[in-house]
Amino acid sequence: MSPTSAIATASDTWFVATRVSSSKFVGRSAELAELEAALVDAAAGNPWLVFVAGDSGVGKTRLLSEIAGRAKASGARVLSGDCVELGEGELPYAPVVTALRALSRSRDPILDELPAPVRAELATLMPELGAADTAGVGQPVDAAAQGRLFEALLWLLDRLGQDAPVLLEIEDLHWADRATRAFLAFVSRSVCRERVVIVSSYRSDELHRRHPLRPLLAELERDARSRRIDLAPLTRAELAEQLEDILGAPPDDDLVARVFTRSEGHPLFVEELLASGLDGRGALPPTLRDALMVRVERLSPAGQSVLRVIAVGQRLDDQLLGEVTGLDRPALNDSLREAVANHILAVSPEGHYRFRHALLREVVHDDLLPGERATLDMALAHALEARAERDGPRVYLTAAIAHHYASAGDQPAALRASVRAADEAERVHAFGEAAALLERAVELFDRVPDAEALAGTDRATLLWRVAESHSVDGEHARQEAFARAAVELVDERAEPRKAARMLDTLHSAQWYLGRGDDSLATIEHALSLLPADEISPERGQLLASLAKGMMLRGKNVRAVEVSRETLAVADALDNVKLRGRALNALGTALINLGEVEDGSARLREALALAERSGNPWQQNSALINLADALHLAGRLPEARAIVEDGMSRDNRPHRIWLVILRGELAIEAGEWDEAEEILTAVGGRPVGNTLMNLDLRRAELALGRGNEDQAREELAEAARLGVAMDEPQFSGVLGALRAELERREGDLEAARGAVQDALDRLETCTDDAARLARVSAAGTTVEADAAQRARDLGEPENERVALLQADMHVARAEAAADREGPLEVAWMLTARAERTRAGGGADPAAYATASDAWAARERPYPAAVMRFREGEAHVGAADREAAGTALAAAHATAVRLGAGWLRREVEGLAARARVQLDLDSAGAAPEPATELASDDPFGLTPRERQVLELVARGATNREIGSELFMAEKTASVHVSRILAKLDVRSRTEAAGVAHRLGLAR
Question: How many domains is the chain partitioned into structurally?
């Protein structure tokens, strides 16, 4: 055979083997360089998520194969798996499991090093590792179970990466199951320094508007650690190179032009053109799918029969193929060899046959008649069910059985198989897949006789299990709908415990949907169904949920009562996990109530309990609660030490919360450069309350820095998220920060609105004194500005309203400080000082007292702000020396912190009041000025003083011109010069300065 021929014939056989694929990797140099760069980054500890997008057959698989080869050659470890199109992604973790099997096949020694908790989690996907740690079927799902599995997978990737960079390839992501999508989302939020690159390919032409992958891609592809590579068709030069490799000789220009015109550079289309005729003139059907079907039809009848079975079953081994096709071993082998030789089928390392290209499978599957498809589905279901009886009900077997029975139209069998498959999905923590399977069972329930016998349970329990699965999957609206439907089917008097369990699920959905009042009412109702002295798991879980809800909403007194009830039940049941939950809520609530030592002891007990029981989630929860509560109790150094202890532990769960808390405490301690580094380095794309927490901390730092535009962006996102979060730790901080932003920019009505919105949410649900005091102090500051403006503009009624509001805020702050919590007292003193400014006689002593209180709590920024206000009050009282001392101290702190806003305010006031801010060479000691020009401190000309008089009365430029016999344009120039000399931004501020400093009558 000549080297230019790509056709090998055998006259004594009934098939023709054709090589139409290029053995050489063609083009894609830029794309390959991007992937290689990601590998280099990963080797340096910078993980990446890369998405390769392109139309069907454009070369995504070939690109992944090439980078895999190069990665192996460079010493990297390569793991790969692909997603399977089976219903709505019913094979959980399909690509992940395929990738892990490579470790099992090679008997990787790292599998022998796995810590016991990691091994137990991974065993859910790799039974060969031993007994899995699984949740009980039909019981309330363990919301943290999937997270623990994901942590174990990430631990494994991290450990593998310590020896060599890891390349994990996932193909056909458009068919990904929910669990795989959830894992990718988790990885994007959690990776930090792991030496890993995850490359996923998907068909961009498959992503219709409602495709479930679209929102995930929108979330992941905008992350700083991810990139997307779009594959375009081959160029003419690249296509010529492909032809040369296939044909074994350089193609002539006519052939290149002809094939390029007909294929438009699509690699797979090029192959099919050559399969139709090496001259590129072969008759080709109008679509690629039709062209692929021509290749299939060249096979023998037996070969086509085998392809039809694999098109329905997708990945089948010799045994299943033999059972379903009925072919004897020699005939089956000949048929498979024929399909493999013609590049239609490929063989996986596990010995499964699959189509070489997904499009080939699709055209064969779509060509089946409905009756043919149903017959094959039924045959596959029976064969798989027999295997499940022999080998055990593995999740992939049960999911496939349920799918094939449903596709075959056997509703009774589909109902039974769907429930069984859902059981197995729950055992591997694939709660999204379990929900889909259970929803199918619910749909079938009323269509078949003896449904309860087939399902092994009643309809209400099925609905409840759907709701429970959706709770873990984050679909809280669907969780609520199914939980409510389940509750309505249960007789609360006849089955109180069953109703209580379902109400607990309903309460959880309502909480996550931001309906805190409804949520707590639901849990109270559930408890009312059970005897008050009952010792049962149901009552214990309900009490723990209620205690946590009360604590999070700031109802600390009630949280303490319920936590102690929970402890009694937990001890009676000897339930360690329940005791840990109760101690967490109890300790946090006690510290918030001022019982710091007792509360700290409870939280430390919860931490020790979690350590002994090997529960990293409870460990970090206790660490976070302890550090945050101590911070609010004024014990900042101790809180920071606890966070550092948590960061040193090898616990990933909730780690991002520890990182954000670390940044928050650095802001409080005045370590702003450190805080900025911490908060900027937070990887991935957090969601929910984690994202809101991060937004608030970044906004707080941006406000301090004086980056108001960034602060507005962060607060806008936080406000959007806050609609569904009814917790003081979010609503209180959000309200205070929004009020400060609007106040700075002169929109006092918007600032008032932010304060009132926060108070409305706080006062109806909380006794969280620290956040209440903070919002009250922010409100007093806003009203002080409002009263000052009203006096400047001669608006006595507006001044009266502002003073009344300020009095209410001060009273609220004083009430919050009743327990004499250190931060609450500092906020109260801040509010009292600001009230003196509101009244028109700012008291420097009050501000000095507030500043000292903040300094005693080791919070330098609010201490410096109060010192600035003290200096402003001294200026108003014409005590220039005292003003210089206070302003110099505030300025020194502002410079050290990098507090841009405060520094500008101090320097502006000093310039207007002619106060010197010179510092010594160490940048610490102030040099206050003692001589100040009193008659003309701003260098205003006599004409400008006249203009300022009119500005202070509220005159427009036209009115100024008319009064002083000048052109309106000339008046405008004078006003602009006055604003510059006074270092103010508006006519209103200029009027205020003129009134306060006696520059105008």
Answer: 7
Residues 102 and 244 in one domain: no
Identify whether the C-beta of residue 826 lies closer than 8 Å to the C-beta of residue 849: no
C-beta separation of 162 from 13 below 8 A = no
In angstroms, the CA 341 to CA 843 distance is 92
pLDDT for the residue 763: 67
Using the 3D structure, point to which of 245, 265, 284 is the last residue of a domain. 284
Are residues 741 and 658 part of one domain? yes
pTM for the complete prediction? 0.73
972-993 tens-digit pLDDT: 878 888 887 787 777 777 877 7
Same domain, 139 and 74: yes
Q: What is the mean pLDDT of residues 165-170?
A: 94
682 and 736 in a single domain? The answer is yes
Q: Kindly report the CA angle at 627 between 811 and 768, in degrees rounded to 5? A: 25
Q: Which amino acid is at 192?
A: C
Which of 962, 954, 944, 959 is closest to 987 using CA atoms? 954
176 SS3 class: coil
Q: Is residue 440 within 8 Å of 406, Cβ to Cβ?
A: yes
Q: Are residues 177 and 210 in the same domain?
A: yes
The two beta strands, 345-347 and 226-230, are unpaired
177 vs 464, more confident: 464
Please report whether residue 420 resides in a domain. no
Structure tokens of 560?
């303490």
Q: Which domain holds residue 890?
A: 842-932
Residues 6+ apart with CB under 8 A from 54: 60, 201, 203, 204, 230, 231, 232
Let me know: does 52 contact 68? Beta carbons within 8 Å.
no
Average pLDDT of every residue of the chain: 84
Same-domain check for residues 834 and 846: no
Distance CA 939, CA 952 (A): 18
pLDDT at 283 over 70: no
Domain-terminating residue out of 798, 822, 839: 839
777/122 Cα distance (integer angstroms):
51
Within 8 A by CB and 6+ apart from 724, the residues are: 512, 513, 514
Residue 816 sits in the same domain as residue 921? no
Radius of gyration of the chain (CA): 35
pLDDT tens digit string along 65-102? 889 999 999 999 999 988 877 655 467 888 888 888 88
Q: Is 717 helix (H, G, I), strand (E, B) or coil?
A: helix
Q: How many CB atoms lie within 10 A of CB 601?
A: 14
Q: Exposed, middle or buried, 988 (CB in 10 Å: 0-12/13-18/19+)?
A: middle
Cα-based torsion angle of the residue sequence 771, 775, 776, 780 in order, rounded to the nearest 10 degrees: 150
Backbone angles phi, psi at 398, to 5 degrees: -65, -35
pLDDT digits (tens, 9 = 90+) for 609-656: 988 887 777 888 889 989 988 998 899 999 999 999 888 875 555 578
Q: Is residue 488 one of the residues assigned to a domain?
A: no
pLDDT digits (tens, 9 = 90+) for 861-903: 999 999 999 999 999 888 989 999 999 999 999 999 999 999 9
Pair (201, 333) in one structural domain = no
Single out the residue of 696, 698, 678, 694 nearest to residue 686, CA to CA. 694
Kindly report the length of the chain.
1001
> What pLDDT score does 220 carry?
81
Q: How far apart are CA 271 and CA 267, in angstroms?
A: 7
Q: Across 848-924, where does the E strand assignment appear?
A: none
CATH number of the structural domain spanning residue 305: 1.10.10.10
The strand pairing partners of 264, in sequence order, are none
Alpha-helical (H) ranges within 409-555 are: 411-427, 431-445, 451-455, 459-473, 476-488, 496-512, 516-528, 537-552
- Name which of 442, 949, 800 is nearest 959 in CA terms: 949
User: The domain spanning residue 155 has which CATH number?
Assistant: 3.40.50.300
- Examine residue 778 and state whether it is found in any structural domain, yes or no: yes
Distance CA 354, CA 362 (A): 12
Give domain status of residue 102, yes or no. Answer: yes
Residue 11: how many other CB atoms lie within 10 Å: 4
